[in-house]
């Protein structure tokens, strides 16, 4: 809150970028986590909320006879324009938003200031909202084709994967480790979805580090193990999303 120069500005107009002639008159509020615009129309009182961590840029434009325009660009490509009557108020809002949208410490992030209106027991229950073992059990694993591996215990191999993963029963720890070294961020192929009716599966992984011109014996053995764990099919699809690759 100490970074807010002015918490409330009245007589602000919200300009619809899709239809510039459409303007909504209301009040602009600045909080520690959101910028909120409330329309004055008593029968509607529509609110527009902008999360500060979603703001990618704030631009104060030259004033005109109608007021001082303030352009807010968001990371989801939304562009919001405010018309603030006084230039000094616009300057205060601009400086406040510029600082609030660029936290300097972890403690300034929204997740640390959010305080849900629930007691301690309810908050602790949220940690078990998703039970990974129960979800895999619902799908029908482990079974004679798939088993749990503790190779990623304490996130030793991949820090963006769960600590407990399911792999083909024929995939030994050396195969898992070798495959992880061949792929970006250590994301070796691991089970994501299993259909017990036809024993079909979907596995996830990241792209190879060295491109398709290089080979890795352990990674090939991992793919062969996945193939063997899908006895209902004679072939396997390998799908890659080119949008995930960096531009060169």
From TrEMBL:
Q: What Pfam families would the database entry show?
A: Myotub-related (PF06602), PH-GRAM_MTMR6-like (PF21098)
Q: Name one GO molecular function term.
A: phosphatidylinositol-3,5-bisphosphate phosphatase activity
Q: Which keywords does this chain's UniProt record carry?
A: Hydrolase
Question: Is this entry keyworded Nuclease?
Answer: no
In this chain the Myotubularin phosphatase domain maps to 126-248
Q: Which GO terms describe its biological process?
A: phosphatidylinositol dephosphorylation
Transcription among keywords: no
Q: What's a single GO CC term here? A: cytoplasm
Tell me the domain of life: Eukaryota
PANTHER family on file: MYOTUBULARIN-RELATED, MYOTUBULARIN-RELATED PROTEIN 7
- Which family does the UniProt entry place this protein in? Belongs to the protein-tyrosine phosphatase family. Non-receptor class myotubularin subfamily.
Q: What is this protein called?
A: Myotubularin phosphatase domain-containing protein
Protein's organism: Megalops atlanticus
Q: What is the lineage of its organism?
A: Eukaryota, Metazoa, Chordata, Craniata, Vertebrata
